[in-house]
UniProtKB/TrEMBL annotation:
<feature type="domain" description="DNA polymerase III beta sliding clamp central">
    <location>
        <begin position="131"/>
        <end position="249"/>
    </location>
</feature>
<dbReference type="GO" id="GO:0006271">
    <property type="term" value="P:DNA strand elongation involved in DNA replication"/>
</dbReference>
<keyword id="KW-0239">DNA-directed DNA polymerase</keyword>
<comment type="similarity">
    <text>Belongs to the beta sliding clamp family.</text>
</comment>
<keyword id="KW-0548">Nucleotidyltransferase</keyword>
<dbReference type="GO" id="GO:0003887">
    <property type="term" value="F:DNA-directed DNA polymerase activity"/>
</dbReference>
<dbReference type="Pfam" id="PF02768">
    <property type="entry name" value="DNA_pol3_beta_3"/>
</dbReference>
<comment type="function">
    <text>Confers DNA tethering and processivity to DNA polymerases and other proteins. Acts as a clamp, forming a ring around DNA (a reaction catalyzed by the clamp-loading complex) which diffuses in an ATP-independent manner freely and bidirectionally along dsDNA. Initially characterized for its ability to contact the catalytic subunit of DNA polymerase III (Pol III), a complex, multichain enzyme responsible for most of the replicative synthesis in bacteria; Pol III exhibits 3'-5' exonuclease proofreading activity.</text>
</comment>
<keyword id="KW-0235">DNA replication</keyword>
<feature type="domain" description="DNA polymerase III beta sliding clamp C-terminal">
    <location>
        <begin position="252"/>
        <end position="371"/>
    </location>
</feature>
<dbReference type="InterPro" id="IPR046938">
    <property type="entry name" value="DNA_clamp_sf"/>
</dbReference>
<feature type="domain" description="DNA polymerase III beta sliding clamp N-terminal">
    <location>
        <begin position="1"/>
        <end position="120"/>
    </location>
</feature>
<comment type="subunit">
    <text>Forms a ring-shaped head-to-tail homodimer around DNA.</text>
</comment>
<dbReference type="Pfam" id="PF02767">
    <property type="entry name" value="DNA_pol3_beta_2"/>
</dbReference>
<dbReference type="Pfam" id="PF00712">
    <property type="entry name" value="DNA_pol3_beta"/>
</dbReference>
<dbReference type="GO" id="GO:0008408">
    <property type="term" value="F:3'-5' exonuclease activity"/>
</dbReference>
<protein>
    <recommendedName>
        <fullName>Beta sliding clamp</fullName>
    </recommendedName>
</protein>
Length: 372
């Protein structure tokens, strides 16, 4: 294999695929990226056996062929080369090494056989539809903060994507929860998604596809089955296994009888929570909300540090209420409110609170209170 490629093109592709490679691997081949040169393109593939990323870039191919090279090593080398450099890659099957040249720099890297690289097969993916990059970003960004990191509840370690109905309209719905908060966002059901199974997209896959599509302006082709999902866009393909588990019946935790509505400027509220929570203890980060009439008082107490209070204006016409929340959870939800008007819909101090964005009806959040 021998080829020449621009540094910027190679660096961009390496940056995309190498993030799928775990830093610590017990299987040596999984630390490597597969390079395949043929017909004017260089294909790069990385996998951790649960997730595979493939990207193609234009290159001047002298001799077709392939090999595997240490992922993070080659990425760091290319990253440190000067901008605008032309990179020559040459692999010798006799020595089993890849030579990388750019200007006066030359590196020789030990390779592992191409045949040892595990290729992830996607199998039959019967459901296929397109989403705009903006729509997919919205579904991810407004839910992923609520993905659980608790490995024992593995079925919560991802975003639940499924077809649902909202006021009789078919929707594609994304849901994430960690038991303390829940985020639910939906978009009109794309053509081809009808009848799709409910799937749980793993946390790592969510993070990788979000990074890959950042800055892209095209649509994303989504193909899926019960066990796998594939995202295709531009010159990249991400294939991933899905979480094999049953997502809980989340509709049961979304309160329907809450009747105390507080309307507040989302950004003013978030800044006030952030300031007051500075003094609260690190473990619980508890903040108390006391609302009465047109005034909301936020307060936090720490046995070691002292106390903090702040008052902000709100619209509220129900009975006075005091309720406590984890400030980090509050801030995570407040960060999703794009408009000025955030709605907090309470029942009482011990029941789940509903949070809505006044300018976006398709987004809904649930937050469990805590004792303060």
């Amino acid at each position: 294999m021998k080829l020449t490629i621009e540094r910027a093109a190679l660096l961009n592709a390496l940056g995309h695929v190498q993030s799928a490679v775990e830093r610590r691997n017990t299987i040596p081949i999984l630390s490597n990226i597969l390079l395949e040169a043929d017909a004017g393109t260089l294909a790069l593939t990385a996998t951790d056996l649960d997730l595979a990323i493939n990207e193609r870039v234009e290159a001047s191919i002298v001799t077709a062929g392939g090999t595997t090279v240490p992922a993070h090593m080659i990425y760091d080398i290319v990253r440190k080369l000067p901008e605008g450099a032309q990179i020559e890659l040459a692999y010798s099957s006799e020595s089993g090494r890849l030579t990388l040249r750019a200007g006066r720099s030359e590196f020789t890297l030990a390779c592992l056989p191409q045949d040892d690289f595990p290729l992830m097969t996607s199998g039959d993916l019967p459901y296929s539809f397109k989403l705009s990059v903006a729509e997919l970003c919205r579904l991810i960004d407004k839910t992923r903060f609520a993905i659980s990191t608790e490995e024992t509840r593995y079925y919560l370690n991802g975003i639940y994507l499924h077809a649902a109905e909202s006021a009789g309209v078919p929707m594609l719905r994304a849901v994430a929860t960690d038991g303390h908060r829940l985020a639910r966002v939906e978009t009109p059901l794309p053509e081809g998604a009808a009848g799709m199974p409910g799937i749980i997209v793993p946390r790592k896959t969510v993070a990788e596809i979000r990074k890959l599509i950042d800055g892209s302006e095209d649509h994303v082709r989504v193909e899926l089955s019960d066990g796998k999902i594939r995202f295709t866009f531009d010159n990249a393909v991400l294939t991933s296994k899905l979480i094999d588990g049953t997502f809980p019946e989340y509709e049961r935790v979304i309160p329907s009888g809450n009747d105390k509505v507080m309307e507040v400027d989302g950004k003013v509220f978030a800044k006030a929570v952030d300031r007051v929570s500075t003094i609260s203890t690190e473990r619980s980060r508890a903040v108390k909300l006391a609302v009465q009439g047109e005034k909301l008082t936020l307060s936090a107490t720490s046995p070691d540090a002292g106390t903090a209070t702040e008052e902000i204006s709100v619209h509220y016409s129900s009975d006075p209420l005091e309720v406590g929340f984890n400030s980090r959870y509050l801030l995570d939800i407040a960060a999703q409110i794009e408009g000025e008007n955030a709605q907090f819909i309470f029942a009482d101090a011990s029941s789940p609170t509903l949070v809505r964005d006044g300018t976006e009806e398709s987004a809904l959040y649930v937050l469990m209170p805590m004792r303060v």
